[in-house]
UniProtKB/TrEMBL annotation:
Lineage, opening ranks: Bacteria, Pseudomonadati, Pseudomonadota, Gammaproteobacteria, Alteromonadales
Any GO CC annotation of this UniProt entry: cytosol
Domain annotation Glutamine amidotransferase: ranges: 60-195
InterPro entries cross-referenced by the UniProt entry: ChyE-like (IPR044992), Class_I_gatase-like (IPR029062), GATASE (IPR017926)
Pfam families: GATase
Organism: Ferrimonas marina
Entry superkingdom: Bacteria
Record protein name field: GMP synthase (Glutamine-hydrolysing)
Length: 248
């Protein structure tokens, strides 16, 4: 018998310093997962940079969020990167379901010996059309998603290929956008399924100095942003189809 929805407990591995963004991200993940916020525990890596598999006790699945305040390429500056990668490898080994978003996608690439590069300019920012691979047609999360669905994508680091032992599910011309670890309930997205258009506008306004070249650039990005209901639904699919094993 599967676990009832109201009994699920997920761990959100959070990489946020700003108090407002911490709360918004937590509540956004809960909203799009279809869970109460209280069902999602938080492990904030800035608060707890050293940890082990004990953080998974009593957890049904793991979420890894994004970050505008850290980089997977600066492990000396951010000491939590190494234990976070070890945690993801442990989840794969014990087949604990995982969904990684943005920073989480890059973290998973690095954890599995893949390459992440940094863009100084010309990076994706706003809402983008996501293309699906042939493998997506048989994937539990993507098989009924249309080509070109819109998603929020804001990142200065990217992966050109997926690691060995993984299957590419979605992409844009600049980079990989989603993969699954072969033989494990482990998915990633470079885009943000936990972010919708209103939250994108709020976040980009808050972190404009980090991503935009001034007010005119910011306004151009925000004015072109589209709604992203299909990408936002991926988190519910992860809960329903993977954690609860509900009929698709």
């Amino acid at each position: 018998m599967s676990t009832p929805r109201e009994s699920l407990c997920l761990l959100l591995v959070q990489i946020r310093e700003n108090p407002k963004t911490r709360d918004e991200e937590w509540r956004s993940f809960a909203r799009f997962c279809g869970l109460a916020p209280e069902q999602i525990r938080i492990l904030n890596l800035f608060d707890t940079p050293s940890f082990g598999p004990e953080v998974l006790q009593g957890i049904d699945g793991v979420l890894v969020g994004g970050s505008s305040e850290a980089s997977v390429l600066e492990q000396e500056r951010y000491p939590f990167v190494e234990p976070a990668m070890a945690l993801l490898r442990h989840c794969i080994a014990v087949r604990l379901p995982v969904f990684c978003s943005c920073f989480g996608h890059q973290l998973a690439v690095r954890a599995l010996d893949g390459e992440v590069i940094r863009d100084q300019s010309g990076f994706e920012m706003g809402t983008v059309a996501i293309q699906l691979t042939e493998a997506a047609a048989s994937d539990p999360l993507y098989h009924d998603m249309p080509q070109g669905f819109m998603a929020v994508s804001v990142h200065r680091e990217r992966a050109l290929t997926v690691p060995k032992g993984c299957t590419l599910l979605a992409f844009t011309e600049p980079c990989t956008h989603s993969f699954r670890v072969d033989g494990a309930p482990f998915w990633t997205t470079q885009f943000h399924p936990e972010v919708d258009r209103p939250v994108l506008i709020e976040r980009l306004t808050q972190f404009a100095h980090h991503y935009t070249d001034g007010e005119d650039h910011l306004r151009e990005v925000l004015d072109s942003a589209q709604e992203t209901p299909l990408s936002n639904d991926l988190l519910r699919r992860f809960v329903d189809r993977v954690l609860l094993d509900l009929p698709q």
